Amino acid sequence: MEPMLEYFEQPAIHDDTEEQLAREARRAGEAEASLIHLMLNDNGVYRANPVNQAWFSGTVWRKAYGAIKVLADQQQVADYISVSDYLNGTDPNVNWLATLAELNRNNLARPEAVDTYVSILRDAHTRRSAERIAYRLMTESRKGRAAVDAAIRDLMELDTVEASHDHSAKAVIQSAIDYTEEAFERGQSGELVGLPTGLPDLDKITGGWHDTDLVVIPARPAQGKTALLLNLALNADVPFGIISSEQSHEQMGVRMLSINGKVSASKIRRGRLQGEDWSSLSASAQTLAVRQFWINDDPAITIDGIRRQARKWFYNHGIKALFVDYIQRIYPVDPRQPKHLQVADVTTGLKTLAKELGIPVVALAQVNRDCEKRDNKRPGMGDIADASIIEKEADMIMTLYRDEVYNPDTTDKGIAELGICKNRHGPTGKVMTTWNGACFRFGDIAEHAQSRPD
């Protein structure tokens, strides 16, 4: 027995449990053999029922499936002869023709039971994986939180174990066609392809926020970037999560009430609400209380903590977007690293998380103060603090600038500029929006223009 195991109560394994485990193992082995048999007799079974090679517990069937995959993906026939020939070339220590011939003679696989065989493989693999994770947690528990975090991450990833990252040309093109057709149908009906930003001019350029994208919004302090993040989150009208390492959930909640109810945040903070304010605030609270969003306001959260939280929200609540305030504020996993490496870890982690969960991640970023020394103080990509990795990883970079912060006499009071300086999927350019600082609202510039006197 491993030394650590003495600290855990060991459940007694009764004969009936051992018999049940043995039955399940036999059942899984029979399902593996049956599935291989059906695939060898009809390659259409392989194409219609993609499985993960790791699901096969038996070495022989795992290797046989690997050979079927190689041959079938190359548009070659994968039958008993061709698979035997292929495996003889890669593993000559086994008489593959005799092994597979024995399978052909003795197998009673039923084509109508393919779905059942696949389900048995997947469930058996999940159980084996969970048992390995649990055992590793017991034996490594003295490592503390790191061992627990690793176990939680691995258990959550079991839900996505069947996702394949190896795609043939046919599969790639078919996915592209499916995406194009869906985008066309949405476009014809006036729908956005991605999640709405709530700003029509921005949606025209971006098509909304797209799944797997990392969007970075850099700005100097006092420009309203947290307010912009909250506006974008609420406008998306889907379940979402917010990582707020700078402001508490209470502060974020007050801002949300102000934005949604069009009530002055200053009045809320100073307790100077009047009759109509209470009505608006009450209606705003009722609307927001039934929305599906979650906020983590841990001031020392790391990128590992963000991963854990986002996965929990994704699997438990089905969030469709994640908003992060802000990249340089996320606590480093290794504080001894140079700042640019800390930012690189966070940025890469956010992009990986967007791809893993298949949702857009929108993150704020800080801008160096050097841009304020210029006559034109509008920030660009090069002004982002520790910018190099952010420039590479982000799918979109959209700066925020309000001229009235620096020029009190500007004609652009109440106007904010969104400068799209990187866009992997479309054009760059500038989008003008309205800014109501009293209630932290960003709005459509067209409405603002219509309300101006001639």
Principal-axis shape equals elongated
CATH topology annotation of the largest domain: Rossmann fold
**CATH level-4 homologous superfamily of the largest domain:** P-loop containing nucleotide triphosphate hydrolases
Strand sequence of the main sheet, in spatial order?
A: 3-2-4-5-1-6-7-8-9
**Uncertain stretches:** 1-15, 448-454
Q: What is the succession of H and E elements?
A: HHHHHHHHHEHEHHHEHEHEHEEEEH
Radius of gyration: 28 Å
The counted number of beta strands is: 9
Number of helices: 17
Strand portion? 5-15%
The assigned structural class equals: alpha/beta
Largest sheet: 9 strands, mixed
Please identify, by name, the CATH architecture of the largest domain.
3-Layer(aba) Sandwich
The CATH class name of the largest domain reads: Alpha Beta
Count of all domains: 2
Mean pLDDT: 80
Describe this structure in words.
- The chain has 17 helices and 9 strands.
- With 454 residues, it is of the alpha/beta class.
- The protein has 2 domains: 3-160, DNAb Helicase, Chain A, CATH 1.10.860; 197-451, Rossmann fold (3-Layer(aba) Sandwich), CATH 3.40.50.
- β7 (415-423) and β8 (429-436) form a beta hairpin.
- The longest helix is centred in the N-terminal third of the chain and has 27 residues, at 15-41.
- It is elongated, with a radius of gyration of 28 Å.
- The termini are far apart.
